[in-house]
Write a structure and sequence with these properties.
By secondary structure, the protein is an all-alpha fold. It contains 4 helices and no strands.
Length: 86
Amino acid sequence: MLFLGPPYRLYPPWLAFAGILVVVAYNDERDGTLSSAILRGPKGDIIVLVVTFVLTVMLDLTIAIEIGMILSSSFSSCAAPILPAT
């Protein structure tokens, strides 16, 4: 692998990381926890998950995370209870 040249030396760590992610996702879905958590979750969480996933595929991961955090904070601030003033 070292003889292939500088650009190709950087890919093996990413390939190993992708393989680990696939195994973790497969094991998580095999238990049925991921799909049940998505289907039973609040609508705001489902929207944040879907929007972040679509933006990750279409755009950059950094942009998707930033927009997901903004969406998540806007949904959580709407659901925050209003405490009476003392």
